[in-house]
Amino acid sequence: MTEGIARARVDRWTALYPALALAALLPIGAVTPLFPVELGVATFALGTLVIGMAHGAVDHLVPLRAAPEVSLRRSIAVVSVAYAVLGGAVVAAFFRAPVASFVGFIALTWLHWGQGDVAALAVAGVEHLPTSAERWLSLVVRGGLPMAVPLLSHPAEYRLVAEWIVGLFVVDAPVAAAAVDPLFTSTTRLGVGGLMVGATALSVGLGYRRVRTGAARRGWLRDVGEVAVLWAWFLLAAPVFAIGVYFALWHALRHVGRLLLVDASAAAAVATGDARGAIARFARDAAPLTLGGFLVVGGVALAAPSGVAAPGDLLAVSLVAIAALTLPHVVVVAWLDRRQGVWRPGVGG
């Protein structure tokens, strides 16, 4: 009973309300393409400072809390090694092959943000995604909305970010610009657009078929509504601004909510309606490694061959650092997914 109350409250606080907030922000997002990209950079920086960096900063405690047989020492040691090895490999890859690494980062983020949304739907107990295949299709749609849709609607700013990132490691600006050309051809954009439209239509259609055969309509309607809001948000808003808001308001909050549920003390606080106590506990646990994440940003800035001299450089450095933190974070989340049965047919997460 208490667990059900906690799940319902976490879902409402960290998923439903933020989704409604993003829908309310659509008119603001629609005018952001009229403003300089620096507005988006500032928004991204603020979102990262407030919650984005913190959402993965308790990964070292996830094995301990999700698996009682794992000791604190083992939990911290295994996750620390994963972050050091995998994060270091990502940074090294950017130095060696920046364009390929940028593409890899987009693909990894596509996977991870879809992974996060499917887990949130599992927490909500939706019934129209009972098989692994349907959940993977939902992952393709949910992760692709922030990563792929801006390529269709605002390719110039998307390309600018790619050039900023590649330009950290390729000092010659014309060479950096030419290196990303293949990513922004009409063929690439049409292919990505076709994939997203087709995957969205298929996911919505299969979900509706499940409703027709007995699945609860409410969960499907929620899924469709969220997808529609995300399509509108990323079609209308300038990419950097859109990602900055989405990262903090949508993805990070949903993951924080999930982590509250695997922490027995935080989940108990949620069940009693003590949101402040649950968030304070999370913030305390996340504070040290959130600072560590910003130290990673500083390290990448110091190591970048071209230096950091403009807002675009700062955004690029932040994204490379986030890429280094994302790969081990995805591994931890994938372990949690497996532990909770997110991808097993018929399991509610």
Automatic annotation (TrEMBL):
Its cofactor is Fe(2+). The chain crosses the membrane at residues 15-35, 41-64, 76-95, 190-208, 228-249, 286-308, 314-336. It is an enzyme of class 1 (oxidoreductase). It comes from the Archaea. Coiled coil: none annotated. The keyword Signal does not apply. Fe cation binds at residues 55, 112, 251, 255. Its main location: membrane. GO terms for cellular component: plasma membrane. GO terms for molecular function: beta-carotene 15,15'-dioxygenase activity; carotenoid dioxygenase activity; iron ion binding. It is a multi-pass membrane protein. The keyword Lyase does not apply. It catalyses: all-trans-beta-carotene + O2 = 2 all-trans-retinal. Signal peptide: none annotated. It is found in: Cell membrane. GO terms for biological process: carotene catabolic process. Its EC number is 1.13.11.63. Keywords: Cell membrane, Dioxygenase, Iron, Membrane, Metal-binding, Oxidoreductase, Transmembrane, Transmembrane helix. Catalyzes the cleavage of beta-carotene at its central double bond (15,15') to yield two molecules of all-trans-retinal. NCBIfam families: blh_monoox. HAMAP family: Beta_carotene_diox (MF_02093). Belongs to the Brp/Blh beta-carotene diooxygenase family. This is Probable beta-carotene 15,15'-dioxygenase. It comes from Halorubrum aidingense JCM 13560.
